[in-house]
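Hey L., structure's done. Input below.
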Amino acid sequence: MRAVRLALSPVLLAAFAAPAFAQQPAAPAAAAQQEPLTAEQQAQVARQDAEMGAAAQQVLQMIDANRAAEVWDGASQTMKAAVGRDEFVSQLQADRTRLGAPSRRDAPVVSRSQFREGDAVPAGIYVNVAFPTTFALQPEPIRELVSFRLDEDRTWRVSGYSVR
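Output:
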């Protein structure tokens, strides 16, 4: 079923967009803890984790290659409303000047969140992919985060990047 797979074609990845997998509205935390995922649901989550991790790797490769402007060009409108293209590019350049080039990225950790109207973050469903990354000028690993938002057209797009 195409709607269940997060299909990441080269054309879509170039624009940092991919069709969303069949997404259920986020359940309240208490209900999610009471009902364990079925084996099929666990497999679906694992597939999405791997696919979103791969998409985040492609975003990082573009950032590493000084193509941050292209990342912004394909980003979610929520990101574009929060930060302008020139500001995004200059902040990434400043971070890389301070940290140096990445020398090692460990396995990503994927998390999900949902925000409602009125929250500090624009409403929507988000997937965050965090990498413990070591940079040339930073001997201890720090968190490098690529965030994706499920946009209104049911397409995942980059909604943020940060290093902390």
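Confidence is low (pLDDT under 50) at residues 1-32. Residues 39-64 form the longest helix (26 residues).

-- N.
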